[in-house]
Design a protein that fits this description.
mainly alpha; 16 helices; globular
Length: about 400
């Protein structure tokens, strides 16, 4: 019984990671399907009430939420890996540095060849800070995470008061730039690569100002949660989960509504989203945990867990799929798909990945890319270790 419970608890983490993959895909696919999002503009070809509704719902419930969950789980898994290395008597620091080095290489290749922007290389760089802070006390880690959000609040509040975004985000200039981006994405593979490289400064600015700091904060909170094994000691009836849902949905959805109503590039709206997104992310986690620990929710865990167990392979696979669907490398549908159809593609890709994950893990213990990264981490030859019959 103890082994069964432990497997269920590990599956909880994998299922949450699988859930995060879907949200990340819903956001990332928009940057492959259109040249407009990276320039903070809306495609005038898709301006119906339905198009606006889909974008509005994504802004409220998806944008800026799921990368936080993914980052939290990265910190959580980091702590579990450190504990596993200690139990095995293995040196953790060199293993993790090799792992982060491999992750950085994968991230660079991903951001250049597959999609605009990348999070893996960012994880590798910020992961170095996590390695350096791995022995800090829980209180210190949480104080640093809180200080990061205090810094973001101050800087974004100052920007909202004194920065005129209308002078920076000129609509005419944004539309012209978006049309150029779409043309490049619809071109040859070299055109696509060139566009990915040209987008790096814009993406890098986002990482430096918002996404990078919040990622480190989520790492630290996840590390503390991993130390206390918070995700291994939950029950669906926990009063704390219900409280997290109540507070998280109230604050998170309110912030999402303000963000969605504020318009593209509005600093006040971005400030509200950054400050409230962690609450909605926490509410999602609490909701999914309650579902998975309900009488009929075990099937949800079993459905999502394999996708999360192969999260790295699936993350890269999502980008490969969008490259083939939308750019000139494949079907060249960039700019020809409505927001609702783009969402449909995202759901279809994820459903296919869930099916493929179940099939792959029925024969192997590790995903294809996970096996390679594991080999780099252990400084051994790649091995996917077939499942026992």
């Amino acid at each position: 019984m103890g082994q069964v419970l432990e497997r269920a608890r590990i599956q909880d983490v994998d299922a949450l990671r699988g859930f995060a993959l879907l949200g990340i895909l819903v956001v990332n696919i928009t940057f492959a399907a259109s040249g407009y999002p990276i320039h903070v503009a809306e495609d005038p070809a898709y301006g119906s009430w339905l198009d606006h509704s889909v974008r509005w719902l994504s802004s409220v419930f998806v944008d800026m939420k799921f990368y936080l969950l993914f980052s939290f789980l990265f910190g959580y898994s980091f702590q579990l890996q450190m504990q596993a290395a200690q139990r095995a008597g293995a040196a953790f620091r060199p293993r993790m540095l090799r792992r982060l080095g491999g992750l950085f290489v994968l991230g660079v290749l991903h951001g250049v060849f597959l999609i605009t922007g990348d999070i893996l290389s960012v994880y590798a760089i910020i992961g170095l800070l996590l390695v350096a802070m791995r022995r800090v006390k829980d209180r210190t880690a949480l104080l640093v995470a809180g200080a990061i959000y205090a810094y973001l609040f101050i800087t974004l509040a100052v920007a909202a008061l004194f920065l005129d975004t209308s002078a920076v985000l000129d609509p005419t200039t944004a539309v012209t730039a978006a049309q150029g981006t779409a043309a490049n994405l619809a071109g040859s593979f070299s055109d696509v690569i060139g566009e990915h490289i040209r987008a790096l400064p814009t993406y890098g600015l986002s990482l430096l100002t918002v996404q990078g700091p919040t990622t480190l904060a989520a790492f630290l909170v996840g590390m503390v949660a991993g130390r206390r094994r918070l995700l291994q000691n939950v029950e669906g009836s926990d009063a704390l989960l219900r409280l997290i849902q109540l507070v998280g949905f109230a604050i998170g959805i309110t912030g999402g509504l303000v963000y969605a109503s504020g318009g593209n590039g509005d600093t006040r709206s971005v400030l509200m989203s950054v400050m409230t997104a962690p609450f909605l992310t926490a509410a999602y986690v609490a909701s999914l945990l309650r579902i998975m620990h309900s009488d009929r929710g075990e099937d949800v865990r079993r459905l999502l867990a394999p996708a999360g167990r192969m999260a790295l392979s699936n993350y890269l696979g999502q980008s490969l799929a969008t490259l083939l669907i939308f750019t000139g490398v494949g079907f060249g549908l960039v700019g020809q798909v409505s927001p609702l159809e783009t969402l449909g593609f995202a759901v279809g890709i994820f459903v296919l990945q869930v099916m493929l994950s179940h099939a792959w893990l029925s024969s192997f213990r590790y995903g294809p890319v996970e096996g390679v990264l594991r080999a780099v981490t252990n400084a051994t030859a790649p091995s996917w270790r077939t499942q026992a019959a």
